[in-house]
Structure formats: C-alpha cells, structure tokens
Amino acid sequence: MLDAAGPGLGHFIREAGRGGAQPGGSIAEGQSEPPSGGAMRGKNVYVETYGCQMNVNDTEVVLSLLGDKGYSPIQDPTIADVILLNTCAIREKPENKIWSRLGEFKKLKAVAKKNKRRGPIVGVLGCMAERLKHKLLDADRLADIVVGPDAYRDMPRLLKIVEGEADGGAVGALNTQLSLDETYADVVPLRPAGAVTAFISIMRGCNNMCSFCIVPFTRGRERSRPTTSILDEIRLLSDTGVKEVTLLGQNVNSYADFATESQRGAPGTTVGDPFSTYAAGFRSVYKPKREGAVQFAELLQRAAEIDPEMRIRFTSPHPKDFSDDVLQVVQQYPNVCKQLHLPAQSGSSDVLDRMKRGYTREAFDALVDKARRLIPGLALSTDIITGFCGESEDEHAATLDLMSRVGFEQAFMFAYSQRDKTHAARHLEDDVPQPVKARRLAEVIQVFRETMFGKNEKEVGRTHLVLVEGEAKKSEEMLTGRTCTMKRVIFPKISVPASQHGCGGEAVPQPGDYVSVDVVSAQSSTLTARPLARTTLREFHSLHGSTVPRRS
Ligand code: SAH
Ligand code: SF4
Ligand code: F3S
C-alpha cells in the first residue's frame, strides 16, 4: 500500500498487474501516436493492480474472462484499447493514487480525440469501484466502466455497451452487484507464463465487521469455493511446474465448504460448539455455522498432500480462526510453510474492543506462545493500525510492548484512515490528530525494525531451504528466492552439486529449484547466502529434520 511502512511489502502489492505498470510512470499529453491498429487486430487490455493479493488473483481472473472474448494483455497503456485499474479502498491514500492515474489516462483520451481516433475505454474495478459506484462515472467521466469484485463475468457485456456508445455522449456502464455465492471457481486465472509461485483464491468476502474496516462493504459476505475445484487447480499447477501456492481469502482460515463431504473425523474440528473452531479466547460478532463443512485445517491438509514438493502458504488469516487443528497441520506437513500472518492491529485490549476484533491482548499473546511452542522456527508477521479512535498514549505503549515482546519478522503498519460506512465512522470519533498518528506509526516501525534486525542477525550461519524464483533485481550474477519462513535470500549464481548427497554432477540452480544455502550476512530486509547444493524439499527435510533448521 502506498502509505505502508516497513521493509517487505510482501502481502500488499502496489502495482503487480499483468500490464506491468511502471510505478510512478506518467502519461504526457502529446505523446507519440500509437500504431494505426490495422483492420483485423484483436483488442488489447492494459491492467494495473493495487491492494492485496486477492486483487492480483482477481486481475488474473479478469484477464482470463476477457481472453475468452479475444482481448490480449499488453504492457503499454498508450496503445491499449482498454485500460483497467483494479483498485483498493482500504485507506484514503491508495484511493488518491487512483484518482491521479485516472487524470493521467484522461490525457491519453484527449490525445486520441485530437487525432480523431477513439481513445481507450477506462475501467475501474475492485474495492474502490464497489465503494464509490456511479461517483466514478459522474466524476468528469474519468471512468467509462465501473465493475465491483463480484461482477467480473459481466465485463464483456459492459465493455460492449461502452464500445457502442457515441464518443463522449454516453453515461458509461456499471455493475457493482455483490454476490452471495460467486467464487469464480470455474475460471482458470491467466497467470504469468513460467511462474514458480501462484495465488489461488479459496474464499471471498468477510463477515467480521471489524469497526475500522471497509472490506465487508466492498467484498460482501463470506463464501467458500468448493474444495474439489481448489484441489484440482493445485494439481494442475503442480503439473505445470509451480512450486509454491498461496491460498487466498479476505479471511482465509474461516474457510467452510458445505458442498463437499468432510473427510475429517477429528474431534473438535467440525462438531459441537461453533466457537470450538476458534483459537482459545477468541470470538466474533457472528456465529459461524461450520458443522459438517470442510474447514480450513482439512483443506490445508488435503492441499499439502497433493505434491510434497509444492510449498503451501496462506493469507490473510484472522487470528480467531487459528484453531489447534490448523496449527497442527502447519506443524505436521513439511511443505506447509512455517510462517504465519497474525494481524494483531493493536496491543491494547481496550483498543481491540473498540475495533471489534473479538480478542484481548492476553488471548493474542497466548496464541503466539502456543503457535511458537508447537511449530519450532515459526516466523510471524502482523498488521498494525496506529492512532485508532480514542487511542491513548498508554494504549499506544501497549502496541509498542506487543511489537517488542513478539518480535515479528514482517509487519504492515498503517496510520488509521477513517472509512465511510464503517462502525467506527458512524459511532466513534477519529480524534487522534494526524501528526500524533504519524509519530506513533514511526515509533511502532522503529521497534519493529530493531527486533527484526536482531532476528536477521541471528540467521547468519544458519542453513535454509530456498525456492529459487529467478535473478536478483540488483545483479544478474545473483539468484533470489525465499526461505520457508518467507525471508528473501540472494546468493551467487554458481554451479553447485545437483543434490545434497553430492551425486549427479553440478549445475547452476534454475527458477523452481530448491537450493540449500548457508546464510553469510544479514541486511535490513534480505539475507545474503552461499549456495550449498540443489536439493528437494523432502531431501532437505530428511537431512535436517525440519524445513527451518535451527543450527547450521
Ligand atoms: N482480514 C485481515 C485484514 C485485511 S485488511 C484481518 O482481519 O486482519 C488489511 C489490513 O489493512 C488490516 O489488517 C489493517 O491493518 C489495515 N486496515 C484496514 N482498515 C484500515 C483503516 N481504516 N485504516 C488503516 N489501516 C487499515
Ligand atoms: Fe477487515 Fe476485519 Fe474482515 Fe479483516 S477480518 S477483512 S480487518 S473486517
Ligand atoms: Fe484493498 Fe479490497 Fe484488498 S480494500 S486490501 S483490495 S480486499
């Protein structure tokens, strides 16, 4: 996110669209004219994606749906027939960025008009589209189509309406209908060719209604995709060489599929008190009905069993849904990554109460302790909001204490931004002055950095299993990938033994290979390592007894 702070923006991607937007790139009036187009050429579409990984995967769904209608993705907005912005509404700042991009695209339209050519159709998709609806069409016609997250199947029709309009004289087209059951289960997302990692959406929407959050309003009610379609997609990705999938959902671990028969008989997982599906001490404002459903622990287990060489991650979870059986699956399966996102939001029980998060500080601490006890080497990340309504200095101090006590390896920290419609906007006062929010944010970041640097330094000398993603950004001589704990590692692109046993000759590791490495130095957000050998997840695990060995 644009006002995000902290090193790895791992789970928030500023611009990750297939269009490959140039961050900060602007479009100047009078830019050279695009090629004439030719009579028979198909239509093309340029996309920029903002917000969370769900949006990245939604963009892949949209490109797949439009691909069926003859649209191909391109990287250059100046020659696009259709320009799409897949947007985020979580805070004010990301929305401001969209308004300025829309202003820039308006210039493109003006250039086209001057040259008596039809300009691009500009569409706003995603959460900001859902939040602002027709306001985006009314605003000086900056957008031609507005499409909410559950209405992407309607895009070809909406595009057709606008294509048929006389230039300038029309009203645009909009569909922001939310759905109770849309999961795009049957759409195969158009993913980048040769990618080693992939996102898979498993559920959509959120029922939690945390008082600060717009997501329930922009994404609608929770609904889960059928288990079988998720497992089929994982099999397909495994067959095409993908080595890591991240299961996605606004509330990923509240997954519950009633259409598929549960194969788990473990006590406490699917029967009895509905709150038994929660971590101890956690509640929510709604009572989940999950009896008899395939729940998250089972899905995770079945996903992990498909291909033991494929890593499984998941985000974004809610801490309440880390029931014991979810933690057990993470612990038991070597290919389920030993990294959990535990969005705390605040370290103060009173603030958590005003946020309607459904847990206290004590319950959160107990969950951290239990997860760490159960899963050796576990890495934790979190989300924090500073300056929420009524936050006192003492309550802020409790968040600083949480940060130093837990020592998260990654954190996404934001100043509170009031969003219309939310409980907080309607009932609480946004009374912490902006400079105070900013100062508290800086303090939280400072504590986070100190603990994180300390942890990174302890990594020096350790052996890690890295999945190679490709060349490092800074140097073609280096390769990059992530550990099971989500740490970014760079290491020299040199020949190494083809296996940890030394048999099979030598080879330079390729994207999609697992490599065992020794960490030689730690920077603020990356580790530099020495590659030891190519390996497999199972080989590494059997040699070290873990995918996160504690000693070198
Ligand atoms: N479902 C996840 C969070 C999804 S939203 C959870 O329950 O934790 C991603 C993050 O954006 C949130 O964790 C929160 O830290 C931040 N966020 C949401 N609304 C916000 C607001 N109004 N102001 C500032 N940050 C916000
Ligand atoms: Fe927003 Fe809360 Fe839902 Fe997370 S759980 S998406 S913070 S309402
Ligand atoms: Fe933003 Fe919507 Fe994701 S508000 S964080 S894009 S669910």
UniProtKB/TrEMBL annotation:
Q: Which residues form the Radical SAM core domain?
A: 192-455
Tell me which cofactor or cofactors this protein depends on.
[4Fe-4S] cluster
Q: What GO MF annotations does this protein's record show? A: 4 iron, 4 sulfur cluster binding; metal ion binding; tRNA-2-methylthio-N(6)-dimethylallyladenosine(37) synthase activity
Describe the location of the TRAM domain by residue ranges. 457-533
UniProtKB keywords: 4Fe-4S, Iron, Iron-sulfur, Metal-binding, S-adenosyl-L-methionine
- Biological-process GO terms, alphabetical: regulation of macromolecule metabolic process; regulation of primary metabolic process
**Any one of the GO CC terms:** mitochondrion
Provide the MTTase N-terminal domain boundaries.
43-164
Coiled-coil segments on the chain, per record: none
Stretches the record annotates as Disordered: 13-40
What Pfam families does the entry give? Radical_SAM (PF04055), TRAM (PF01938), UPF0004 (PF00919)
Q: Which protein family is it in?
A: Belongs to the methylthiotransferase family. MiaB subfamily.
Q: What is this protein called?
A: Uncharacterized protein
Q: Which organism is it from?
A: Ostreobium quekettii
